[in-house]
Structure formats: C-alpha cells, structure tokens
Amino acid sequence: MTKQKKKAPVSIGDQIELQIVGLNHQGEGVGRFHSFTIFVPDTVPNDQVIARVISLQKNYARALPEKILKPSPFRIAPFCQHYGACGGCQLQHLAYQQQLQFKQNLVADTLKRIAQIEIPVHPTIGMANPWQYRNKAQVPVGVEAGIVQAGFYEKRSHKIVNLASCPIQHSANDETVKVVRQILQEMGISIYSEANHTGFVRQIMTRTSFATGDILLVLVTNGRRFPQADNFVQHAREKIKNLTGIVQNINTKRGNTILGPEEVTLWGNHYITEKIGLLQFKVSSRSFFQVNPLQTEKLYAKTKEYAALTGQETVFDLYCGIGTIALYLAAQAAKVIGVEIVEAAVKDARENAKLNHINNAEFHTGAAEAVVPKLLQQGYRADVVVVDPPRKGCDKTLLKTITIMQPKRIVYVSCNPATLARDLKYLNENGYKALEAQPVDMFPQTSHVETVVLMSRVEN
Ligand SMILES: C[S@@+](CC[C@H](N)C(=O)[O-])C[C@H]1O[C@@H](n2cnc3c(N)ncnc32)[C@H](O)[C@@H]1O
User: Fold this and answer.
1) Which of 341, 352, 416 is the pocket-test mutation for ligand 1 (most atoms within 8 Å of CB)?
2) What percent of the chain has pLDDT over 70?
3) 145 C-alpha to ligand 1 centroid (Å)
4) Which whole number is the average pLDDT over 287-306?
C-alpha cells in the first residue's frame, strides 16, 4: 500500500491566526497551526497574531506577522531606531528576563533533540545592563549620492545604510565610526564599490578596551598605496579621544572576507590592551577576542570552576585565540598548552604570557585537528582539555584524539548549541559524560547563545 503524504494545513499566501508558543534558534516566534509548525519573525511567546504564509517546507512554514491581535506581556518596544532593518539584533522586542530564559531553554532543548542529553542547564548568567557591551565594531563603507555611508547592509541588498548609533556598542566605537566617516568625506578619500571592485576604503573596524579606554582603528583598504595617510592620521588623532593606534589592513580580494592578510601600522600601537580578571591582554586587529569583556570574565570563571584545577594538571586550551583561557587558568595548573590557527593570535598569546609573567604556558600554531595528534605522538598528555571552537564546532579528528588522550575532564565552551550538541553526543558515546551546562549571555539583544559544559571521563 502506498503511504499517503500528509498535506500541510497551509498554502503560500494564506492568512492565518495563531498563538506564538516559543522561539526558534534564530529568535523567530514559533506557532502551531493545526499542529503544523509556523515560524513568524518579529513575534514573541504569548503573542496572538495574524500572519501571512510566505514559504512552505515539508515540516514547517514561514509567515510574516500582519497584525498583533493580542501582544504578549513579554513584548517591549525595541530601543534602537535601526532594529529590524539592521539585522544585528534579533531580540530587542523581548524583555531581557525572557531573553535569558529563551537561551536556557534553547540549550536544554538542543542538547535533548540532537544529542539525547538531559543534564541540568542552569539559568543563563545575564548582564545588569545589557547594552553598550560590544568592544568591537566592524562596518562596511559606501557612498550614496555623494555622501559617505558607514553602517550596515540593508536587508536583502548591498546598499549600505548609515548607522546613527548602535546601542549594543561601547559608545567609543560608535563615535569612532562616525568621526572616521566624516574624515573620509571631508578628505574626499575614495570609497570602495563592491559592484565594480574599485575605490579604496572598504571597512572601518574599531576595538575599544573597557579596562584602559584604548581605541584601535583599523581601516580596511582595497590596495596598499595610501597617499593621504599622514593627513588621515593627523585628522583621526585630533578628533578621536583615546585613540592609541591606527592600522591599515589591505584586502584586495572580492568577496565577504573583511580582513586581508597584510597590515601596516600607520600610527601608534597595532593592538589594544584589555583586562580580564587580574590579567592583561594585548589584542591585535586580526586576533579573535570575545566581544563582551564584562561577560567574558563570568564565562572564564565558570570555565575555571569546571576545570577544578589543583595545581598539578596539564591543561590544553584548544582554539585558544590570544591565549586568554590558558593564561586565566595558568596559576592553578602545572602547565597550560594553547593551540590556535591564526598566527597573529598566537603571537599575541605568547606576548600575553610574558606581559603577565606566566612561565608555564606554551602555544602552538596550526589547526587543532592537525597539531593535537602530533602533540599526542610526541608524548604530550592533558588532564583537562578546554575547547572553544568557532560556530562550526570541533573537528571529528580532534575529538577522537582527545578521547585517546583520556583527560579527566573536558570543558566545552561553545557559541553554537547545535554543534555543541553534535560534539557532546560523540564524546558521550566515546568515554565521557556531560554533567551540567551553564549558558552565559555574551550577546544580549541577539539570539546568539554561549554555553559552558562540563564533561567527565567515565571510568571503566
Ligand atoms: C570562539 S574563538 C575562541 C578564542 C578564545 N578561546 C577566547 O576565548 O577568546 C575560536 C578560535 O578558534 C580559532 N580557530 C578556528 N579554527 C581553528 C582550528 N581548526 N584550529 C585551531 N584554532 C582554530 C579562531 O581563530 C579563534 O581564535
């Protein structure tokens, strides 16, 4: 007998009424229409809405809200004038307590759904003031009717819209972008056109230290020759208070990659100095650094707690960036070993060890999945392994190598619950047991979720 295909209860173009009952991982409202899942952006749990179906898949549809019949008590007015158009934030219309609840639920649900892991997932550690937390701004530059624009790409287009201000940015980043845009306009410096791959200035990037106030300005340019460089430096130094360095990053490639491989320091330092806990860190333009320094300290404190060091252990910090976690744990460990793929970050990590007078840290450059098997072959062993990979999670070869190395504990720091769950499932099936998870809100107002998970080796 042929199986009858179940027909979706909606078609594209239908107008439907539904109650929003949850949020998906992108922060879009989730409702059910005759048990069929409908994603409705810009809605929050407990909204009663009328929405129009715009796309249909086998198991779900997407619909745009047309009318909020009854707003949820958790719905609030978004703070930012660019909210929605910019796309950088997804949850400004949801009260902060519910944002934290959403992140806790998302971690618990994802671990259960993808990895069949049910462990305590603690309430998300939030911020007292969940605004102005970002230490780094990175904005494309363009021209519209002769006026230099620096901001964000308009949705589904490559038109750059000027950002009046960004409430999740440190105000110094906001100000720096504005001032640089004015200088570019006044000096008539040529601006990059994505369509023609011509023009000079492509992006403005700034990093501000919350601890010292240092500001690093990085101008990404489509070419090396910068005839007005001295003049630009002079204007920027005059107008940007606390500016400590200007770097020209050269990116002549087409495409979305922001930073190119070559840099020239036009003036001052090519890094900022930031503090996490008692330690100082030099962060240069191309190195990864957590965007929210206040929450980073809470994230690392939890990592330290889960690592439960006694002073005897060798600790691996894989995907270590500028060595922050390794150095944060170094005082409680016999030895810390960091592995990181970006050479500039490893250089920062080594300098950071010196800066903090830490002598029991070593750093290796390369892909963790290539370096760690070599270290294992050379006789290295870890008692505790910390991994903090990018969104795509850990490489399978790396996970396998870790299980062969048999550390007592693994502390997994993750910015993507889906790949976290996938990797925990593998580790769970290969000698480790996940014990608990702690979400930390590193990215308030957005749907991004950071989580620390403690895993322990199962003794046979
Ligand atoms: C989420 S960041 C974590 C950095 C650091 N733990 C921190 O807290 O600042 C991930 C880091 O992994 C690095 N990375 C990406 N792929 C890698 C790989 N295959 N092997 C080693 N490092 C990698 C990135 O350059 C980045 O510095």
Assistant:
1) 341
2) 98
3) 40
4) 97
Kindly tell me if the per-residue pLDDT of 86 is higher than 90. Answer: no
Q: Is the pLDDT of residue 294 over 70?
A: yes
CA of 174 to the centre of ligand 1 (A): 26
Note whether 15-70 and 136-273 share their fold. yes
H/E/C letters for each residue in the chain? CCCCCCCCCCCCCCEEEEEEEEECCCCCEEEEECCEEEEECCCCCCCEEEEEEEEECCCEEEEEEEEEEECCCCECCCCCCCCCCCCCCCCCCECHHHHHHHHHHHHHHHHHHHHCCCCCECCCECCCCCCCCECEEEEEEEEECCEEEEEEECCCCCCEEECCCCCCECHHHHHHHHHHHHHHHHHCCCECECCCCECCEEEEEEEECCCCCCEEEEEEECCCCCCCHHHHHHHHHHHCCCEEEEEEEECCCCCCCCCCCEEEEEEECCEEEEEECCEEEEEECCCCCCCCHHHHHHHHHHHHHHHCCCCCCEEEEECCCCCHHHHHHHHHCCEEEEEECCHHHHHHHHHHHHHCCCCCEEEEECCHHHHHHHHHHCCCCCCEEEECCCCCCCCHHHHHHHHHHCCCEEEEEECCHHHHHHHHHHHHCCCEEEEEEEEECCCCCCCCCEEEEEEEECCC
pLDDT at 1: 46
Substitution site in 283, 288, 296 for ligand 1 pocket (most atoms within 8 Å of beta carbon): 288
CB of 349 within 6 A of ligand 1: the answer is no
User: Quick one: fold of 15-70?
Assistant: OB fold (Dihydrolipoamide Acetyltransferase, E2P) (2.40.50)
Is 415 a catalytic site residue?
Answer: yes
Average pLDDT rounded to a whole number, residues 244-258: 94
Is the pLDDT reported for residue 4 higher than 90?
no
Would the CB of 399 count as within 6 Å of ligand 1? no
User: pTM to 2 decimals?
Assistant: 0.93
Domain 101-128+292-457: top CATH class:
alpha beta
Cβ of 341 less than 6 Å from ligand 1: yes
- 136-273 domain in CATH 3.40.120.10? no
Check whether 293 has a pLDDT greater than 80: yes
- Cβ of 388 below 6 Å from ligand 1: yes
Map out the domains of the chain as residue ranges: 15-70, 101-128+292-457, 136-273
Q: Is 300 in the pocket of ligand 1 (CB under 6 A)?
A: no
Residue nearest to atom 4 of ligand 1 (CA): 321
- Give residue 5's pLDDT band: very low, low, confident or very high (50, 70, 90): low
